[in-house]
C-alpha cells in the first residue's frame, strides 16, 4: 500500500460523508440529536462494524459506540462528538451552515472543523481498509452528543463502559496545523476549575456619605480577590502549586525550543501593558493561573449615583497544570479566603476538568511523529499540552491509554464562529495520515506478536 494509493482513494471519496454535516445536531438547542445518533449507527453498520450501538444508560444525549475487528491485537479508540455549536449569527454566514459548501479549496459548514469533519475523515479511513482487505488494527469509536454543552455525563459513561472501551491508545477529537502550518501532535490538556464569588454587606444600597462608617461590598470583594493573586500572576493560595508534576527532560526540552512571539501575541489583541511573565512558553505549558472573568457591583449606568453597593460578585477560573485537581484547588482557595479573614465571601463551584499529559516518550507518540513526518515532511510539532482544556481526563484515568490529538483543521478554521471551514488539502492529508497511522500501528502489533 503506497501513499499514492491512499491519496487517490481519499481524493475520490472526499464527499462521501457530507450527509453527516446536514444534521442540525445542536446540543444547546436540543435539535436533531436522536436522528444524528441513529444515522451514525447506520454508517458504522454499513462499514461492517462488529458492533454499533447507542448508550443511553447514564443520561444526557446518547453516546454512539462502535467496534471494528482488525488484523492485529492492538486497539485504537477514537473520541469524537456529533453535536455542534449553534450557527448564529446567521447573517454572517456566506453559505448555508448545514449545507457543506466547497469554495476556494475550502469546505464551509458548521461542525466541519469541530468536530464532524474529523469523524468523516476517520470513517473514510475505515471505509478504505474495509474495502481493501480489512483493518490493520482493532478500532473503537466513542462518539458523544454533549461536548458543546460541557460533556456532563462523560465520566459516568467511561466508568460504566470501561470494559467495552478498553484499548491500547486513544486519539482525541481535534487537531491540525498551527499558525506556521506545522502539523501538531498534542499530548495533553490543561485542566480548569470555574467558580463564582459573592459578598453581601447590607440589605440595601446605602447613601455614599455613610461610607464614613458603613462597609462596602465592592471594596470587600476586590480586597478578597487581591489577596489571592499578586500583580505578576502568582497565585497566593497555600498549596496551590504543590501537586504540579515535575517536568521530564523531553517536555523541558520542548519548552526551551518553543518559539513564542511576544510581539505577535501582543498585537493580536492590542495588549496595552507588557506580558505578566518573563517565560510565557513555560507558563503556557505548565503554568497554573487564576483569572477574574468578570466583576459586578453597584451602579454601572450613565451619570452619577453616589451609593455604597450592598452586594458584589465575580466570576473566576483557574487553568490547571498536570497533577492539579480542580476540587482540591477550589478547596484550597476557600480555605485561603477564610485564613485571609474573608469568611463572608461565598464561593460557588461551577465546573472542573482535570488536566493530563501523555508521556512524551511514549512509543505511540514516537509512532505518530514518524508517520506525520512521512506525510507532512519536517513541518511537524509535538506539543506537551495545550493551554486549553477538554473532557479527556476520564479516558486517561480509567483506561490508562496514551491520548493524542491529531486532526484536519488549520489555524484559520474558526470553530464555533460563522463560516467555520477546513481546507480540502488538509482534510485529504489528514485522512491519509490517519490511514498511514492505522497501517503503521498494525505493523507494530504484528512485530510485537512475533
Ligand atoms: Zn469539539
From TrEMBL:
Keywords for this protein: Hydrolase, Metal-binding, Plasmid, Protease
Residue ranges occupied by any Peptidase M20 dimerisation domain in the UniProt entry: 188-337
SUPFAM superfamilies from the UniProt entry: Zn-dependent exopeptidases
Gene Ontology CC terms, in alphabetical order: cytosol
GO terms, molecular function: metal ion binding; peptidase activity; succinyl-diaminopimelate desuccinylase activity
An example Gene Ontology biological process: proteolysis
Superkingdom of source: Bacteria
NCBIfam families: PRK06446.1
Protein name, entry field: M20/M25/M40 family metallo-hydrolase
Species, as recorded: Nicoliella spurrieriana
Organism ancestry: Bacteria, Bacillati, Bacillota, Bacilli, Lactobacillales
Amino acid at each position: 500500500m503506497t501513499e499514492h494509493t491512499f491519496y487517490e482513494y481519499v481524493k475520490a471519496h472526499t464527499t462521501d460523508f457530507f450527509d453527516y454535516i446536514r444534521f442540525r445536531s445542536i446540543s444547546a438547542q436540543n435539535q436533531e440529536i436522536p436522528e444524528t445518533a441513529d444515522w451514525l449507527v447506520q454508517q458504522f453498520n454499513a462499514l461492517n462494524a462488529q458492533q454499533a450501538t447507542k448508550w443511553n444508560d447514564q443520561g444526557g444525549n446518547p453516546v454512539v459506540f462502535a467496534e471494528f475487528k482488525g488484523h492485529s491485537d492492538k486497539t485504537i479508540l477514537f473520541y469524537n462528538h456529533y453535536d455542534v455549536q449553534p450557527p448564529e449569527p446567521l447573517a454572517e454566514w456566506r453559505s448555508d451552515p448545514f449545507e457543506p459548501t466547497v469554495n476556494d479549496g475550502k469546505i464551509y459548514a458548521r461542525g466541519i472543523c469541530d468536530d464532524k469533519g474529523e469523524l468523516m475523515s476517520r470513517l473514510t479511513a475505515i471505509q478504505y481498509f474495509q474495502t481493501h482487505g480489512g483493518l490493520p488494527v482493532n478500532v473503537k469509536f466513542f462518539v458523544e452528543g454533549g461536548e458543546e454543552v460541557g460533556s456532563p455525563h462523560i465520566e459516568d459513561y467511561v466508568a460504566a463502559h470501561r470494559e467495552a472501551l478498553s484499548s491500547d491508545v486513544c486519539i482525541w477529537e481535534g487537531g491540525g496545523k498551527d499558525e506556521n502550518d506545522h502539523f501538531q501532535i498534542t499530548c495533553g490538556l490543561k485542566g480548569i476549575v470555574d467558580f463564582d464569588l459573592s459578598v453581601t454587606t447590607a440589605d440595601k444600597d446605602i447613601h455614599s456619605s455613610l461610607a464614613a462608617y458603613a462597609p462596602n461590598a465592592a471594596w470587600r470583594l476586590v480586597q478578597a480577590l487581591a489577596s489571592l493573586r499578586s500583580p505578576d500572576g502568582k497565585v497566593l493560595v497555600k498549596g496551590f502549586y504543590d501537586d504540579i508534576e515535575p517536568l521530564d527532560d523531553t517536555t523541558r526540552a520542548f519548552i526551551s525550543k518553543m518559539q513564542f512571539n511576544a510581539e505577535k501575541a501582543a498585537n493580536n489583541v492590542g495588549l496595552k501593558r507588557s506580558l505578566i511573565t518573563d517565560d510565557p512558553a513555560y507558563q503556557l505549558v505548565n503554568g497554573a493561573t487564576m483569572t477574574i472573568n468578570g466583576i459586578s457591583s453597584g451602579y454601572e449606568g450613565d451619570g452619577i449615583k453616589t451609593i455604597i453597593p450592598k452586594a458584589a460578585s465575580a466570576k473566576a477560573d483557574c487553568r490547571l497544570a498536570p497533577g492539579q485537581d480542580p476540587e482540591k484547588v477550589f478547596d484550597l482557595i476557600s480555605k485561603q479566603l477564610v485564613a485571609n479573614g474573608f469568611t463572608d465571601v461565598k464561593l460557588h463551584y461551577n465546573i472542573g476538568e482535570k488536566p493530563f499529559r501523555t508521556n512524551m516518550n511514549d512509543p505511540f507518540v514516537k509512532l505518530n511523529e514518524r508517520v506525520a513526518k512521512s506525510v507532512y515532511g519536517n513541518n511537524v510539532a509535538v506539543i506537551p499540552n495545550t493551554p486549553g482544556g477538554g473532557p479527556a481526563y476520564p479516558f486517561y484515568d480509567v483506561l490508562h491509554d496514551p491520548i493524542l490529538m491529531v486532526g484536519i483543521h488549520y489555524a484559520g478554521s474558526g470553530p464555533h464562529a460563522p463560516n467555520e471551514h477546513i481546507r480540502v488539502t488538509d482534510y485529504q492529508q489528514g485522512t491519509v495520515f490517519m490511514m498511514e497511522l492505522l497501517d503503521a500501528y498494525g505493523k507494530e502489533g504484528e512485530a510485537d506478536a512475533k
